[in-house]
Design brief:
Residues 1-209 form the Protein kinase domain. With 215 residues, the protein is mostly helical. 59% of the residues lie in helices and 7% in strands. A hairpin with an 8-residue loop joins strand 2 (27-31) and strand 3.
C-alpha cells in the first residue's frame, strides 16, 4: 500500500501537481481479486485542492492565487466555490513558503513538494500505527500531536516513549526493521527543514520501502 501511495505522489509531482490534502480519506483501495491481497491497488483521490506547480504556472506567479486575492478585493469573497477555495489553499501554501524562506519560483516549487512529503510522512505513520497497534489505542490526530507537539519531530525520542505502551509494540517492531529503517525514512520526511526532505521517488527507493530490510 505504501509503495502505491508514494508511487502516485511521485507521478503527480513529476507531472507538475501537488496533492495538498493527503490523509487517510485520500487513499482509495481497488482490487482485481478480493481473495488476493497482492491485487490490492491503492490510488490517490481527493484532488479538488490539488495545486498546479508546472513550470509555466510557477513562473507565471500563480494566477489562480492572484485571481482569488482580486476576488477578495472586489468584495466577491462570499462567492464560495471549489475554484476560490483551491485558490485560497494555494495562496496559504505560498504564504507558508515565504515564511520558510522560499522566495524564488523554484524554491516555492520545492517547498510545495516538501509540504506534500511531510503530509505523506504523517499518513505513513498513521497507516503503520493504526494497522499494527491494538484497535482504538491510537488515532491520526493524537499521533500527529505526539510527533509534532510533544516531541518536536524528534522521532527517536517518540520511539522511546512508544516503547512503554504494549499496545504499540508491533508498530515499533515494524519501523525497527533494518536497524530502524522505518524511523529513518519517517524522520527524513518529517524533517523540520523542508530543504532536507526527500522527494517521493527517493522515498520509494529507500531500503525500508523496497523490502531490502526483510532480507
Amino acid at each position: 500500500m505504501l509503495r502505491g501511495i508514494f508511487g502516485g505522489l511521485s507521478y503527480m509531482h513529476s507531472n507538475g501537481r501537488l496533492h495538498q490534502s493527503l490523509g487517510p480519506s485520500s487513499v482509495l483501495i481497488n482490487t482485481l481479486s478480493e481473495s488476493d491481497v497482492y491485487s490490492l491497488l491503492p490510488q490517490l483521490r481527493d484532488m479538488a485542492f490539488s495545486v498546479d506547480i508546472s513550470d509555466e504556472e510557477i513562473f507565471r506567479g500563480h494566477r489562480s492565487g492572484l485571481a482569488w486575492r482580486q476576488q477578495i478585493l472586489d468584495g466577491r469573497s462570499d462567492d464560495v466555490s471549489i475554484g476560490s477555495a483551491t485558490a485560497a489553499l494555494a495562496d496559504g501554501l505560498w504564504r507558508r513558503a515565504r515564511s520558510a524562506g522560499a522566495l524564488t519560483p523554484l524554491e516555492r516549487k520545492a517547498f510545495g513538494i516538501a509540504d506534500d512529503i511531510y503530509a505523506a510522512g504523517l499518513l505513513m505513520a498513521y497507516i503503520i500505527f493504526v494497522s499494527l497497534c491494538k484497535s482504538g489505542s491510537v488515532d491520526g490526530p493524537s499521533l500527529q500531536r505526539l510527533f509534532e507537539s510533544t516531541f518536536q519531530l524528534d522521532l527517536q525520542a517518540a520511539r522511546e516513549y512508544c516503547l512503554a505502551d504494549d499496545n504499540w509494540i508491533e508498530a515499533i517492531k515494524f519501523l525497527d526493521l533494518g536497524d530502524g529503517a522505518g524511523w529513518e525514512v519517517l524522520q527524513a520526511m518529517l524533517n523540520p527543514d523542508y530543504r532536507q526532505r526527500p522527494i517521493a521517488e527517493a522515498v520509494l527507493n529507500h531500503r525500508f520501502m523496497t523490502g531490502a530490510v526483510l532480507f
